Amino acid sequence: MTHSRQPRSLAAIVSTLLRALPIVSLAFASPAAAEVKAFPRSFHAQQMPVSGGTQYVRVGGDGPAVLLLHGFGDTGDMWEPLAEILVKDHRVIIPDLRGMGLSSHPESGYEKVAQARDIAAILDQLKVQKVDLVTHDIGNMVGYSLGAQYSDRVSKWVVMDAPLPGLGTWYAQLTNPKVWHFNFRGPDVERLVAGRERILLDRFYNDLSANPAAVDEQTRRHYAELYARTGAIHDAFSGQFAAFNQDGEDNKALFAKIGKLTLPVLAIGGDHSYGASMKTEFGYVASNVEGAVIENSGHWIMEEQPQQAIRAIVAFIEKQ
Fold first, then answer.
1. How many CB atoms lie within 10 A of CB 255?
2. Mean pLDDT of the region 137-151
3. Phi, psi dihedrals of residue 252, rounded to the nearest 5°
4. pLDDT tens-digit profile of 82-112?
5. Known catalytic residue at 118
6. pLDDT at 230
7. pTM more than 0.70
8. Active-site position among 77, 137, 161, 235
9. N or C: which terminal CB in the chain sees fewer CB atoms within 10 Å?
10. DSSP characters for 55-114?
11. How do beta strands 65-69 and 91-95 pair?
């Protein structure tokens, strides 16, 4: 597919589009604002082979490549509002992480260094050499492993609202009662959660948001159905979360080997979550870090305040 670049920059286009939208306070925002929507028709999706399984990958558009990685409580579907803007003059690549969403459910390979190798293999299959990277939550952890292992393949990195295992203030943050779920796993835990995935996800959306109503009913149902799929909770708990200890050791080894990342980084936090501390947190691992704080938002930035996030992300990607 051929795509001609518009006369104006993407940043100018998105700014014009977003200014045209009504501005309302979070307290009175329409629930439909957070609704999970279908991707534009210019996207196609496929199961792509990776080590021990497949990953579900959405690809759309032409131009410089942008890779978007989600975290727990979401799937790649979270990125639709941003993808709709970026696809105008970028090639946008959006996988569901290993064992999550519509990807397959292998029993192993959840260490973030291994997942980064799988992402690199996906890029190879797509014949994409270099990407701008946008990540959230567990996606940050896979993103760091990608940038650290394949520094020549990542141009810029936008990181959103979660720290990195083993680095920065990670170990101090493990004492925060809000992260009790990191060790909530095992066969009996999975039995407790089975059939109650919506209740579990509601805990995350309610406790980690600035206003729980910002994560609307349709969004909650959508992700509850995906996390109720066979193997999904097991892979999140005993796969993604259980790997954090090893991820910490792997990250310390990577940092000892390569030092700070030199690529430009935009560290975004919700003002009711990590906020401005994200810039400090990623200053431990990168030497060229800007910070941005999303107002009236907790952890679920793309659900709570997508317009603010899109403005910040697009401006950073477009900056020369």
1. 18
2. 98
3. -65, -40
4. 999 999 999 999 999 999 999 999 999 999 9
5. no
6. 97
7. yes
8. 137
9. C
10. EEEEEE--SSEEEEE--TT--GGGGHHHHHHHTTTSEEEEEPPTTSTTS---SS--SHHH
11. parallel
